[in-house]
Amino acid sequence: MESTSGINESNELSLAEFPYIIRWREDRCTRCGKCTAVCPTRAIEPTVFLQRRAFSKGEGPNPEVTREVMQGVQQINDLERYCTGCATCSFVCPNVAIEPEYNPHHKFLFFKNKGGVPYKRGGRRNDPGVSTVDQLKFSRISMLTDPALDAARHEFYVRTLLGRVMPAEDLPLKTVDDKLMLSGPSTFIPPVREIFPIRIGSMSIGALSPNMWEGLAMGITYLNEVEGIPVAMATGEGGMPPRLLKSRFLKYFILQIASGYFGWDEIIHALPHMQEDPLAIEIKYGQGAKPGDGGLLMAYKVLNLIAEIRGVPKYVDLASPPTHQTKYSIEEAVAKMIQSMSMAWGFRVPVYPKISGTKTATAVLNNLVRNPYAAALCIDGEDGGTGAAYNVSLDKMGHPIVSNIRDCYLDLVAQGKQNELPLIAAGGMGKTGNLAANAAAMIMLGASAVDTGKYIMQAAAGCLGDEYNRCNICNTGRCPRGITTQDPKLYRRLDPDKVAERIVDIFVSANVELKKIFAPMGRSTQLPIGMSDGLSVSNKETAERLKITYAV
Amino acid sequence: MSNKKQLIIQGKKDGKRVSSQALEALVQAAVKNNAGNLKIIADGQQGVGGRIWPDLGPVDIEIDGPIGQRVGCMGMAGTSILVNGSASDDVGWINCGAKITVLGDVTNGAHNAGAQGLLYVQGSGGARCDTMTKRNPRFAPLQSWYFRNVGDSFAEFKAGGIAIVCGVDSRNPENILGYRPCVGMVGGTIYFRGPIQGYSEADVNLEELTSQDWEWLTENMKPYLRAIDRESFYEELTKTIGDWRKLIPFTPEEKAERNETVDREFSSWREGVWEKEVGPAGIFGEYLDHDRSIVEFVPAGENRRFKPVWNNNQYLPPCAWACPSDIPSQERASLIRQDRYEEALALVLKYSPFPGTVCGTVCPNLCMDACTRGQLDKPLDIKSLGRLSLETPAPKKAKPTGRKVAIVGGGPGGLSAAWQLSLKGHEVDVYEADGVLGGKLELCIPRDRLPQEVLHKEISRFEELGVGVHLNTQVDKNLFKKLYDDHDIVLIAVGAHTPRKLPFSGSEDTVGGVDFLKDINRGHPPDLAGQDIVVIGAGNVGMDISAQAFVCGAKSVTAVDVQPPASFGVEREAAEALGTQILWPKITKSFNLKNREVNFEDGTSLPADKVFISIGESPELDFLPPEVDTSRGLIKVSMIQQTSDVKVFAVGDATGPGLVTHAIGAGRRAAEVIHAQMMDYDYVPEAKAVIPYDRIKTAYYEAEAVEEFDSTSEANRCLSCGSCRDCGMCVYVCYWGAISRVDGPGNNWSYVVDEEKCIGCGFCAGTCPCGVWEMDKNL
Question: CA A85, CA A66: separation in Å to the nearest integer?
Fold first, then answer.
């Protein structure tokens, strides 16, 4: 206990250093306590305020004092309990009496390293600027020069191919009596899946709550089976419940394997009981949000459900190292992993690696080009999200996705392989809500598909995070929406049916938006992959770098 | 038909085609010349028959030969056009009232953007016929009649007018309306007869004809069939209403309603499809045994994140935490506030036999330094409250237990243990080497600071209790062995009485400070008149020595120390008030009695007739058996004051230097352990944490100038840290009415929470003046 004289206010922070400041309206507050009951970080607390007034009545100084002690809500001056700006307090307040206000002068990062532990968080890169992909515009509109299409009237083929597309002459096929027959020394035809070009990127069971994950899974299944839109979803590294593995729905899901190999023994145990093959296998080598950094699922999140699905004991820390442990070169990593994973399903399932955005992406790409089993390359750019990472990794590590994908595509073009090996762009897709536009732009730069994660969490489940570091506490297990928590009290706030419904809304509408972009550009029967003459940007350097039109 | 003579206009002149512009000029000139009946022998000219002004009277135009696009475009009321044979694209484009009859087929885009007028087609229509047609309320609606079928994309964005497709000898027998008709159609009606393959279901509805429809159709069918020379089909086409159907657009309201009710019925899909395939309760069903229903953000009851706990007296208040004797001053204040004055005064005697002597007189009152009230105005006057118990008689003893304890040393530590053990009913014998009880309280504390009557009053309580006192009994090895054998436990509290000396030259000529103090208290004060005195060691004992030296007549007193002086409080103030100089750092080098000089390592010196040394005292432990370990001249004890011999305990200065209150606390805690050991039960020392200051809400209290001590107002000043003062604030603060007060048992009370009402907001904890309510995770 500090002694009375030991209270040293010089060492305390003022609230002016805090990133969000609570504005509490004493005159409106009913003192119902909903705000303090709901605050995820306990940044606000009930307390008593004293109002003491000395006054004089009548003529002459007749001093009197009134004192009133009233209860109210105060913001806690403790960085471990900082207000994240999530505004759940405002959300539950019956009287519009409380809200957090962003403090542009905050000094949060100067202090958030208590005990020598650097600031860790979840979410996204805190960069509220306009991303490059959001600056791209579709400028080659078919005006009399080509037949313009009408998004509402024409039929569109908004599908992409996941898997290696071999040139016809290289396929081990020949025509015998007007029938196509397998022939040749090898009869291997790489597996290819036809999917919608926007996918739900990898988010694991564990990173997400069961209600969130199941909501996504239901939405995906519904889109495939009822709406006829073949949207794919990747599992993330956290395994998959056997009930889903053994169901006919497995074919809509991409199973991810990563450096922790969590859940894979359970997946392999389920293999003999599978009715369907998974859609694809994604081998995760890196994550755009935190390149070169691993993951750690804290022991307190490893409850029954996670433990069972990942095939581990309860209450243990689960580490995914930054690197795979037995792979020492590109050649080895790619060959070994792709081959093993292909083999697991008899070479019937596309297998591809996912790397974080990096200057060395083309080196990986060129290795894959030479590997007949490589089905695609997924690159996750710096604007990707994560459940937990060091702030420094999130904010300062990584490569923008736009030029990374562009370089890779042009590299493929130079080799004449651009139609063979699909590129998948991830990281910041739909960052500011323009999911379909971002997807279309990436496709025109050369991607075959895009992955989106944060957009999904925001649009389908109301994730509160933003680039001003609002909320972004996915790592703490206290997600106020119930998206990234294993606490039933929190995730039971989230209705999986509603998540599923929103997933359907999102993709049905993205489908319309993609058509609205492609139609005026005269494209309907094929995805305009690499149709970069359709794009322009009002920044000369960007235009030069991406080899697209500079238009002002 | 106009009965004017037909004027023939040739579309070909001298074997060459007349341009559309020239032909149009001829037609316009003829009409202006009142030629109401024209025959045009066309040769592919565009736009023939359009734009003829109605105020020039009716005009009939008959067209032979191959005609170009946009026949009758922008045609107006009064113009009748008859095309002998088929017509090309866009017949009647933006028709504004012309009647156009085509005795053949029309190709693409017939009546595109048409607004008024009639189009009678004897054959079929091409693609995109009747697209973008309008309805202007000033005029009758446009009609488009097709005898056979129409091509793809029929009636796209149709906004008005009536289209009729009779379906006779359709060129596509399976589908008379073509591929995907009515996309974006918002107005008008399509009557059709025959099979179709779909239409834009988002825009139009397929319905049966009403009798009004049928009446209109059968009536308007006649002039149409007459115009295209197919009157013989009238009977077949009007045979039965059931052959016909109509497509009409949804109203904007209907569309809005349809959009709103895009109900994907997820819950039924989940049950019927999802869970049927993956199992009941979904993909995680087998792992989650909790209720899966959706909870609100701020639930009450078991789903709350936090719950309040009424932690009354679960934490130590800062006063009791700081008090080495563990005296709960907040409890005393509470009893006074409850008008239980006698109980309040007796309470302290459970912790110390010396409330008047120690709390009320010689103790530096660490409790007051820690007191939360001190952060507001002044600490609670615990010293005065302690003094109140001076006259309080000893509590009642428990029944005799038959257990015996010998206590070596009748100072505060030994007497504290004797007090506690005696109260618990044990037989206690105290062996004191001196002629009186009290130890340093009696011998070393100057009388002006501790009036003897106060001490003697409190020592008299021991007589009330019947503690066996053996004065003038020096315990040696033999006696110790006897005590050890005759008693269940021996507790050593011999204190420290041998002044420690330093090995400097002349050290042997110095006088032990405590010996000096003892001489005074025994009534033999030395005469120091006119002498210069140096006191080595400027702690509180050094201060007492300094002050007493002045009392004994010293001319000057200088207290020196090697470090910042540890003295504080009344001792320091008294010594300095009398003129004591304090110097540090001073490392003594030598004392030359002959030269009356103390020399220091720094080369300085002080005049000194006498040097008192006061750097601490060591215990005399020669009587100890080897089983009792010592270290650096002190008895080694565990946390529970036990020595290496389980039957032997030790407290006070014999175990290490401390305040009187430390010895009292140690004596009491040793007595607890000894009691448990003798009575054979497990002793678990209570380890309570102190309540943090910020849990106490000083806002409720007014900073006030405390003048005269008064026990009641003092009790009211107590902030009751961690201890409920029964104010009921929590009951009033709780918005949800979840907290109530419950009486009993005895004089006690408690506050309880209705779990079903509580949302865990923490207002009770945040507003409790005493910090009693605490929020816990609701697991």
Answer: 36
User: What's B637's DSSP letter?
Assistant: -
Q: What is the pTM of this model?
A: 0.82
Which of A2, A3, A4 to substitute to test the interface with B, most B CBs within 10 Å? Answer: A4
Q: Do A36 and A73 contact (CB within 8 A), yes or no?
A: yes
Give B269's contacts in chain A (Cβ within 8 Å). Answer: 218, 222, 226
My answer on whether A107 and A187 are in the same domain is no
Residues A198 and A339 in one domain: yes
Residues comprising chain B, all counted: 779
Are B762 and A36 inside 8 Å of each other by CB?
yes
Closest chain B residue to A486 measured between Cα atoms? B288
Q: How far is A469 from chain B (nearest CA, A)?
A: 22
CATH number for the domain that contains residue A31: 3.30.70
Query: Is the ipTM reported for this complex over the cut 0.90?
Result: yes
Q: Find the domain containing A362 and state its range.
A: 151-528
Structure tokens at A308: 């069972």
Of A220, B199, B667, the residue nearest B190 (C-alpha): B199
B160 CB near a chain A CB, below 8 Å? Answer: no
Q: How confident is the model at residue A2 (pLDDT cuts 50, 70, 90)?
A: very low
Position B519 scores a pLDDT of 92
Task: Flag whether residue B321 sits within 8 Å of chain A, measured between CB atoms.
Answer: yes
Backbone angles phi, psi at A61, to 5 degrees: -70, 110
For residue B761, the chain A residue with the least C-alpha distance is A37
Q: Is A239 an 8 Å CB contact of chain B? A: no
Average pLDDT for B666-677: 95
Distance from CA of A552 to the nearest CA of B (A): 35
The Cα–Cα gap between B352 and B359 comes to 9
Contact A48 B766 (CB under 8 A): yes
Nearest Cα neighbor of A279 from A414, A51, A449 is A449
Q: For chain B, first and last CA: distance in Å? A: 94
Asked if residue A7 has pLDDT above 60, the reply is no
Question: B749 falls in which pLDDT band (50, 70, 90)?
Answer: very high
Distances (CA, A) of A344 to A267, A277, A279, A421, B713: 10, 10, 13, 22, 83
Note whether A501 contacts B266, CB cutoff 8 Å: yes
Helix (H) or strand (E) holding B750: strand B749-753
- DSSP letter at B690 equals B
Q: Choose among B332, B312, B493, B315: nearest CA to B420.
A: B493
Identify the helix (H) or strand (E) that includes residue B611.
strand B610-613
CB contact under 8 A, A217 and B283: yes
Domains and CATH numbers, chain B: 263-293 (no CATH), 307-312+724-777 (3.30.70.20), 318-392+692-717 (no CATH), 404-496+619-679 (3.50.50.60), 498-617 (3.50.50.60)
Q: Is A244 in Cβ contact with B283 (below 8 Å)?
A: yes
